[in-house]
Amino acid sequence: MVAITQQLATTEGYSESALSGVTFMRCNGALARMPALYEPSIVIVIQGTKHGFHDGNIYTYDANHYLVVSVPLPFDVETQATAEKPLLGLIIRVDFELAAELLLDLKESVVDQGEAVPPLFASRMDAKLGDSVFRLLEILQSPTESRVLGSSVIKEITYRVLTGEQGRSLRLAFSSDSYLSRVAKVLKLIHSNYHCALDVATLAQEANMSVPTFHAHFKSVTSSTPIQYIKAIRLHQARLMMIRKGISAAQVSAMVGYESPSQFSREFKRYFGRTPVQESQYSQSILALS
Hints:
Layout: H1 2-8, E1 13-16, E2 22-27, E3 31-38, E4 41-47, E5 49-54, E6 57-61, E7 65-69, E8 73-80, E9 87-93, H2 96-106, E10 120-124, H3 127-140, H4 143-162, H5 168-173, H6 179-192, H7 200-206, H8 211-222, H9 226-245, H10 249-255, H11 261-272, H12 276-286
Antiparallel strand pairs: 1-2, 2-9, 3-8, 4-7, 4-9, 5-6, 5-8, 7-10
């Protein structure tokens, strides 16, 4: 699998595959712990190691473990790789309609028992899932096979993860009556409207919860308050726009919902540890983001 991925993931950073929703990742050296933003996804590392840090827990994903993120989530990430053995992997975007369809096919009713369900987890890669990933890599070598066969293999991988040892949190994310799914609905709303004025009362109403209940469940999922989460999403989106589009800090601050450029710069430095200009220069020097 390493040889195929090296041929496909030629660009350092992130690059699109021949199949929509599947992204290659490559890193040719170690990266210190830094904030990252993950969309709902299945992250499969073929070579190298990544560590995710969230809510006091460390999630290791490598050639033997995959990571699943069930909701849009900011958390810290550290990468272990060398020029001789670069980090290689795949990010498969979670297709909510496909996952919901699979749950119907499974005829499984997921009951929210009120337990704390983590929004991300790392699980051991078993032989069946490994076989599915290998087939996906083979298919991705051909645009025609990707178009004709890709969706069926993605469905198989999603099924393996949903029914895996820790698939319950992902299944709960698709269960309409669970606290996790209601918070996930709000997180998607925030991601679509992060540049707008958002108040907690409206978000709580969207989740069909009282404000105190919403606060408690939101923090149990994201480890942050709604306001802290919105701020983190704005800062991450601003960072991406500066790196990918070369937009200035003054311009991007207004684009993500800040009224004051100076406040944006202060909060950006506090969050990322660098000024917007420093972070843009640093990121461009280590990653060729697509």
